[in-house]
Amino acid sequence: MLAYTLFVLFAGGLQALAARVQVTWDVGYLNISRDGLSKWRAIGANGQLPIPPIYISQGDVLELTAINNLDKPLSLHAHGLFQRNSTFYDGVGMATECGIPPGAQFTYIIETRDQCGTFWVHAHYGTEGIDGLRTALIIHDQDPQLLDEYDEDVLLTLEDWGHEPYDDHIKMLQTIAEVDMPPNHPTVLINGINANLSQPIRFLPGRRYRLRVISMSFTYWFKVRLPGHTMQVIEADGISSRPSVVDGLDLCPGQRYSVIITAKESLEFNYALNVTFYNDFIVDIPGLTTLYHHIPIVYHNNAPVKTYPVIEDHEVIWADELAMEPRDEQILLEPVDQHIVRSVKALPKDLGVPIYAFGNYSYAPVPVLPLFTALTTGDLALLPSTYAPQLNAIILQHNHIVELELRNPDSVIVHTFHSHGHAFQVVESGPVHKNSSIPVKRFKGRQPMRRDTITLALGQYVKVRIQADNPGVWFQHCHQEQHNLSGLGFTLIEAPDVMQRTLRMPSEMMEFCRMLGHPTQGNSAGRAGSDMTGIEQPIAISGSANSISDTV
């Protein structure tokens, strides 16, 4: 059910008309075959999969109501939305909310005053997102200059889709080594259907198309190219960029791009938009673990498809955040007040996915939400010892400039990093180990590009910067589902003193926690000070050093 209501916003003395957009998802199980290969109990909304995309305009307020008809708690996350002054709407199960209990409903309020671009919404409690509960969220820009740069919007959603509920898949993964090929590898969905059945995209001569590409993936990467055409990147992860010409896009799970493609003037040929589905951390078997799909780009129904020689990946100019610049010209955040190093660590197992950590401990939820701990413990909320070790909590002071150095030294596979609450400046990448031949790359000019999701390549580090101007509790994690569930995350506790003065939790959320048996105050154990009696022992993982240091 979708409804629209108009209301008036006043900003800076000027009257602006915006919409309050109300969307209701009746969330439940569906026995469905989305790829035509296997039928299983997935999770959808309003009896549908795929779930229709949500389209709104900058300045609108999205009211997304979730009715939980599952047999477990539910939460929804608007991927890439900052949720400024409303961290409790960020939707991370057992971090910012306890979840919507079965049979209950809740409305997320999503403000878009300071954001526009390409986003998506997915469940963020357990495995509900990878099991189907996800869709695109498009926030249309109102800038006349940008709107004048293209004639038409085209949406391209890319998904990895399994053959059983992910909980069952995890059980299967425990019987093989992580780098081995799963016996039931996922298939590709493009715009919600089997990629082999992809619908053509029709181009009109000379027309300019904004192609919005969303990796709504939880495990695999995608590469997108349109040989014979030029791509101009104008957005990454909801941040508008100065146009830059590339040959293709390489998207890790959770990333988004917008590119402008100008159609050719001739109707002589049709073309193929190439989509490669791949993953670097399992044994590559072409046709099984690496899949190649082609979306018809149709100029004329009877025209032949123009073919091009195959070129190697290293010959392709891929979109690169270190080579991009933001349209708003935000300069480098400096000087740095706090430098934080977080290294990917793994506790290998003979079989199954290793236990992971983005710090000294594998991330795990605790009885009291870290958000409640930050709001109810007074000055003690400023002390890391108030939070259980498995939260890997880092306290940020209000408005401090923070540099995160994210390292992937020894885990043997590539990872991703997604930041809630912020789009970070991408400053530098390079080798973790000094004897490596990997080059150091730094952003160009004075204006580093921002985004919220990035790849952490094997043996490399990435330095990113944020300003702690969004008080809240923000989960930082790998966006590969099995790694996230295996503990690869940490928590930013941003300006808890400011949170205590300015944030008020919705009463329904506190009641939901009580219904689900979770305390709503105190430290992570619901006790005073650093007394963690009753909490499960955290899993400590040794490895490369982590550090937090203040820079004067």
Provide an overview of this structure.
The chain is mainly β and 552 residues long. The chain is globular. The protein starts with a strand and ends with a strand. The relative contact order is 0.13. Mean pLDDT is 92; it is low at 1-15.
Characterize this entry briefly.
This protein is mainly beta.
Instruction: Give the low-pLDDT segments.
Output: 1-15
Q: Please report the number of helical segments.
A: 6
If strands are numbered along the chain, what order do they take across the biggest sheet? 12-11-10-14-19-16-17
Work out the number of β strands.
Answer: 35
Q: Largest sheet at a glance?
A: 7 strands, mixed
User: What's the overall average pLDDT, rounded?
Assistant: 92
Give the N-to-C terminal Cα separation.
54 Å
Oligomer: single chain
**Bulk shape:** globular
Structural class by SSE content: mainly beta
The helix fraction, in percent, is under 10%
Content of β-strand: 35-45%
Gyration radius from CA atoms, angstroms: 23 Å
Main attributes of the structure:
seven-stranded mixed sheet; 552 residues; single chain; globular; mainly beta
Which helices and strands appear, and what pairs or packs with what?
Blueprint: E1 2-11, E2 14-32, E3 40-45, E4 54-57, E5 61-68, E6 76-79, E7 105-111, E8 117-123, E9 134-140, H1 144-147, E10 152-161, H2 166-173, E11 187-190, E12 193-194, E13 201-202, E14 208-215, E15 221-225, E16 231-236, E17 239-246, E18 248-251, E19 256-262, E20 271-278, E21 291-298, E22 338-343, E23 345-347, E24 355-357, H3 370-376, E25 393-396, E26 401-408, E27 415-419, E28 424-431, E29 441-442, E30 450-451, E31 453-456, E32 460-467, E33 472-477, H4 481-485, E34 489-494, H5 496-502, H6 507-515, E35 547-550
Parallel strand pairs: 2-5, 4-9, 10-14, 13-21, 22-26, 25-34
Antiparallel strand pairs: 1-2, 2-3, 5-7, 6-8, 8-9, 10-11, 11-12, 14-19, 15-18, 15-20, 16-17, 16-19, 20-21, 22-35, 23-24, 26-32, 27-31, 27-33, 28-29, 28-30, 28-32, 33-34
